[in-house]
User: What shape does this take?
Amino acid sequence: MLTKLPSRQSRIRSMLAIAGVTALMLVSPSIALAAPDDPAIPEPSVPSDVAVDEVPLEYLNTPGAEAQCIDEAVSVRKLESWTCMGPILSSDGVTEVLPVEPRPDLAPAPAPQRRDLPDPDDYDTWCEEGQISCPRVLESGFGGEVKFNFSWGDDEGAQGQWDYIIRTNLNGRQAQWTTTMILENGPALTFQRSEIHCREVVPGPYPDSNCGIHYAGSPFTIRDAPNQRRFSNGPIYGNRLDDAGTYFAEGRGQYSAEGFEYALSIPTYPKPPETGRFVCPTNNGRCYFNPS
Assistant: This one.
């Protein structure tokens, strides 16, 4: 039976141990990144006939999706380690989209608006009222931001939550990214790897093509201490995008929780954390976001 969770914050404080998560980021062997060696986590196999676009943003933000995902992981399957990004459940090398229903009664209460860390923007309070992913295009049309909320845990329940923000600035035919991680609750997290993967959209049932893998500041740690809840890195300079087409970026990462042996990873399939699409036109024109 589905258990109503009173709030994101009280859920976490009431639980006990730690978990490992799945889906080690996919890194090209031909690209050397300035990050330490860590235990490998198997990458989930990706069916070639399924596109990540098939998981719409509206489904990610289904009211109560996070609570249903946690309940499925803890109460139904009793998984030893898992991560939830809305209705997307990852565990033991397998990532899947759960069939969730709108349940506003399970949506968490708004998180307290902390002001105990330097916050020149609204990243810590934006997209916190039961939402999992929130994109926005900057007024200029040449920049965009997207935020993702993650929960992770084990068979005892949810053990921690953190936020992930990717900002894109378009400079001619080049994208520049800034990544920000914010600890919501739980033990300190050390990110052994953090990357941005540039992708060019390929129409039809084919995988999108790679347009660059870029180091994003690891290793670093976010913890529950003054001025240490948040880490930002950037600008991360992408490659020149010569082809006319539609592009976006995926966030990849591997991290561990303080005091535990498990390695955790950001899910990569079927819906990794990704930025909004932007267009690079023909005739060497400047890349831009389509307002929506």
Summary: The two ends are 39 Å apart (CA to CA). Residues 1-53, 110-117 have pLDDT under 50 and may be disordered. The first strand starts at residue 82 and ends at 85.
